[in-house]
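Run: sequence + adenosine monophosphate -> complex structure.
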Amino acid sequence: MFCRIASKKVPAKIIYEDERVLAFEDINPQAPVHALVIPKKHISTTLDIEDEDHALIGHLFQTGGKIAKEKGIAERGFRLVVNTNPEAGQTVYHVHIHILGGRHMHWPPG
Ligand code: AMP
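>> structure
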């Protein structure tokens, strides 16, 4: 599914794009700010990250922080969340970082 968003076959509200990553609004937001950032390269889960992906994954997280700044939630606080496999709630098997903020976050997460 997210490969199809990256290749523009499925529409999304894109908020950032470069040659390696794409960010877009989550279709079912769980907070006032809820965006996703994905690598354009298909990687199913965090367990499938390879040595050659290290720079890409760093760029993915850095992009998450930049989007939080652009959304105006960086100073007050935000979460970058990556779910892996069913018990963690992963439903889309293409690595993605959730950027969540704009409300108080609880800990531990549910
Ligand atoms: P996860 O449960 O961690 O795999 O997260 C998948 C996220 O993708 C959920 O928050 C969904 O709401 C979101 N999602 C699924 N399909 C789309 C889509 N077509 N456009 C935007 N967000 C989506």
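>> summary
DSSP finds two helices and five strands in the chain. The pocket of adenosine monophosphate is lined by residues 1, 10, 12, 24, 26-28, 36, 83, 89-92 (CB under 6 Å).
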